[in-house]
Design brief:
Blueprint lengths: L1 H54 L3 H22 L3 E11 L2 H14 L3 E9 L5 E10 L3 H11 L1 E11 L1 H27 L3 H33 E10 L13 H29 L1 H22 L28
Parallel strand pairs: 1-5
Antiparallel strand pairs: 1-4, 2-3, 3-5
Helix pairs in contact: 3-4, 5-6
Length: 330
């Protein structure tokens, strides 16, 4: 009996120990899970932070305005260092040719420019024209164009700009390379002892110096075009300035404008015709003499007797029978 009771107690103790071990394992597993929680959060924070730093989701977004400002400032620097060539073509009218030409020359001088080409033509009609190629500083390009409109009546204007920065800086870089090459060749020449080597190096030096002269001339040409804008002006002397107006609002205004334009065009035609006739009066006189002689000759021929005319020749036509001729008897 006592043995059975002891056996039961031992079994209950063993079961209790087994249950306690299972509970401890369960608690240990839960404790490891809790301990793993912060490490998982730490891993999550690490990856999110690394991704944010790598792709700019957090810190990159905050620093983007400063980066953008740097990009814009660098772009402004590039534009300020750009090599731009400005050209323009102008068609100008004036009713006071002498005053306008003098004003253009004074304007060019005031802008710090110079006349590269100038010519003046006089026509038989009495009107004159002038052609100019003006060079003004690039900084005064727009101001000069606006000032020309105050001296004469601008009927046509064409502006053009060309960016030659790439070609300019490429030429400049090639020039630096050739100068460095020339220095090295000169150093080699001072150390050369063999005559064949000396001849070869001197030939290379000559070619390099020629390239340097070419590249230097190209840069000077670019500098001249970049520093001074080129403007071509064609000036015409006219009786009446042409106008560029907006369309009339009403039908009556349109008819009035058309009628005025037609009258002005007809008057201009008559003036041009009178001037042309005045220049060609000698030819007209000769033509009138020829016409008068031709008419006089024709009238004289018409007054000649019939038998003297070529058509009255006895051999030209058969003579008909006269009515008093005797008829043959049947």
């Amino acid at each position: 009996m006592k043995r059975r009771t002891l056996t039961i107690l031992l079994a209950l103790t063993l079961i209790a120990l087994l249950l306690t071990a299972c509970g401890g394992n369960a608690g240990g597993s839960s404790g490891s899970t809790a301990a793993a929680g912060p490490s998982a959060d730490a891993d999550y924070d690490y990856w999110s932070t690394s991704i944010g730093d790598g792709y700019g989701f957090d810190s990159g977004f905050q620093e983007s305005p400063e980066g953008a400002e740097e990009d814009f400032s660098s772009q402004d620097d590039r534009l300020s260092n750009a090599k731009m060539i400005y050209t323009a073509n102008l068609e100008v009218e004036t009713t006071d040719f002498d005053t306008c030409t003098a004003g253009l020359e004074v304007l060019v001088e005031q802008m710090g420019g110079y006349l590269e080409y100038a010519s003046t033509n006089s026509y038989r009609s009495g009107y004159r024209s002038a052609s100019y190629t003006v060079r003004v500083p690039a900084a005064q390009f727009t101001a000069f164009l606006n000032s020309v409109g105050q001296i004469g009546h601008v009927t046509y204007q064409d502006k053009h700009s060309e960016n030659v920065s790439e070609a300019y800086y490429d030429t400049e870089s090639r020039l630096v390379t050739q100068r460095t090459k020339l220095e090295r060749l000169q150093a080699l020449l001072s150390q050369a002892e063999n005559m064949e080597d000396i001849i070869t190096i001197e030939s290379a030096i000559s070619e390099t110096e020629y390239l340097i002269e070419q590249l230097t001339g190209t840069l000077r040409h670019y500098d001249a075009l970049v520093d001074f804008a080129t403007i071509s002006i064609n000036l015409q002397e006219v009786t009446r300035l042409s106008t560029v107006e907006s369309a009339p609002p009403t039908f009556l205004d349109q008819m009035s404008t058309a009628f005025t334009g037609g009258v002005n065009g007809f008057v201009d035609f008559l003036q041009a015709l009178a001037i042309s006739l005045a220049y060609s009066w000698i030819w007209l006189l000769i033509l009138a003499v020829i016409i008068i002689l031709a008419v006089h000759y024709a009238r004289r021929k018409s007054k000649e007797p019939p038998f003297l005319r070529p058509s009255a020749s006895p051999f030209s036509k058969k003579q008909g029978k006269k009515p008093d001729d005797k008829q043959p008897k049947e």
